[in-house]
């Protein structure tokens, strides 16, 4: 009986800790995917590099009702001239779901 009580206590504690974890823990898949897909070769979170800072992208598009869909489309299809002369190449290796994860993560950086 005691072992069941300890197990129940451990599960309850794990639930409390998970609920109180910072929201950034939820963004880990987006960051990991950005690193895995080499997004960070051209982008940085807080400073312009070859491409705009992802924080700036979030600021620019966060007010759009379709921000996640718009960014996911731009991630897959690429773009030219929106952020300057350097074009963003198409990322056709990404699935729509992966692009949506990246777009959602970027929008959390605002």
Features:
0% strand; 5 helices; mainly alpha; Cytochrome Bc1 Complex, Chain D, domain 2; 110 residues
In summary, what is this structure?
This protein is an all-alpha fold and 110 residues long.
Overall pLDDT score: 83
Distance between the termini: 49 Å
Determine Rg (CA atoms, Å). 18 Å
Structural class: mainly alpha
Structure commentary:
This protein is mainly α and 110 residues long. The protein has a single domain (23-107), classed as Cytochrome Bc1 Complex, Chain D, domain 2 (Orthogonal Bundle), CATH 1.10.760.10. Helix content is 54%, strand content 0%. It has 5 helices and no strands. Helix 2 crosses helix 5 (96-107) and helix 4 (67-77) crosses helix 5. The protein is globular. It starts with a helix and ends with a helix. 17% of the residues are buried. Mean pLDDT is 83; it is low at 6-25.
Layout of secondary structure:
Layout: H1 2-20, H2 28-36, H3 54-61, H4 67-77, H5 96-107
């Amino acid at each position: 009986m005691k072992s069941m009580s300890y197990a129940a206590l451990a599960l309850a504690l794990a639930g409390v800790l998970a609920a109180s974890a910072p929201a950034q823990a939820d963004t880990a898949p987006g960051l990991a995917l950005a690193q895995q897909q080499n997004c960070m070769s051209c982008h940085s979170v807080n400073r312009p590099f070859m491409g705009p800072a992802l924080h700036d992208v979030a600021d620019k598009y966060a007010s759009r009702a379709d921000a996640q869909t718009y960014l996911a489309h731009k991630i897959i299809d690429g773009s030219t001239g929106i952020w300057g002369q350097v074009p963003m190449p198409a990322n056709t290796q990404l699935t729509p779901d992966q692009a949506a994860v990246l777009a959602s993560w970027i929008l959390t950086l605002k």
